[in-house]
């Protein structure tokens, strides 16, 4: 049996590794369209290993995040990867946010997050002397890692176990075979690749790939760009670990936060603005076909009508460093616009239903011998190894 994995991010490589562990000797090929692995969502994030604070108890996100943390910790230590438990505080600024914080704490406890506790402003000042708030939630075991490095380590193990990892291999056409397998055609190639089973881990293109093998066009991926700034080198002392605001429960984005990275930098962000291309990492990145597809989706119009005010505010933070700094200063009052240096940007593949609802949980479909990850945003990096276990149980291999 020949299994194809479409997508060379952390989930694709985690699934490949898991299948080779489960089925030694399996013929397996990973196809990644970029010249390097982890080029998109995996390599363009803040590197947080999420503890599982926010997610609905019993959801795939909650279950797979908690399992994924332990698996990721084990892999990092086995492979000598940098994994730092720097801790995280979620900071409330008023009574309304304090009530939300209490609900987050209840969820975290229900999800089995270790050591999580509500703390007062004095304890917050001890942990993060430059942060300000009336209360906070402390998660001492929230960690940071380099997800691109994790992906490369997984790829190395895949090759060691006999799998193939091909970069520069863009799948332009995917068709379901009568027997439930699939046939893939690559850009610039006339030959076809026949797979007896396929796992689609296409991230920003997951809906398109799934639709080619007969899956439902809903949900549609709407790309949202998240932009980061870096703290100037002389100001990184303002942040010891991770400082987050209390998120709006109606939105899937956690708001502008302060994140220490494994290499000692501090990222500030991200915001969330509509990207003008599926891989649109700046305002100058426009793909008219991608944009037409976004604007044609009925769910986008319903989403825009519902959240246009929030969207306008996010656009302002994208256009203005001062506006971005004002948002970031809510929990870190010493921060000034001059402390910020332009940093990286990522694009979140956010699944949106026809009714305009943002899909909150992981969405995994099963069509013939094709498993498709239709929605896998944060904490997908944290949960990747657990997602791989879940997919391994769904895929008929053997």
Describe this structure in words.
This protein is of the alpha+beta class and 398 residues long. It has a domain at 1-85 and 144-218 and 361-398: 3-Layer(bba) Sandwich (FAD/NAD(P)-binding domain). The protein has 10 helices and 21 strands. Strands 5, 6, 7, 14, 15, 16, 17, 18 and 19 form a 9-stranded mixed sheet that branches. Strands 9-2-1-13-21-20 form a 6-stranded mixed sheet. It has a 3-stranded antiparallel sheet with strand order 3-8-4. α1 runs parallel beside α5, α2 (60-79) crosses α10 and α8 (298-319) crosses α9 (321-328). The radius of gyration is 21 Å and the shape is globular. The N and C termini lie close together (7 Å). The mean pLDDT is 95.
Total of DSSP H or I helical runs spanning 4+ residues: 10
Shape: globular
- The low-pLDDT segments are none
Give the CATH H-level superfamily of the domain at 1-85 and 144-218 and 361-398. Answer: FAD/NAD(P)-binding domain
Q: Roughly how much helix do the residues carry, as a percent range?
A: 25-40%
* CATH top level assignment of the domain at 1-85 and 144-218 and 361-398: Alpha Beta
User: What CATH architecture of the domain at 1-85 and 144-218 and 361-398 do you see?
Assistant: 3-Layer(bba) Sandwich
In the CATH scheme, what's the topology name of the domain at 1-85 and 144-218 and 361-398?
FAD/NAD(P)-binding domain
Structural class: alpha+beta
Instruction: Report the count of strand segments.
Output: 21
- CA radius of gyration is 21 Å
Beta-strand residue percentage: 25-35%
What does the average pLDDT come to? Answer: 95
Main β-sheet: number of strands, strand sense, barrel status? 9 strands, mixed
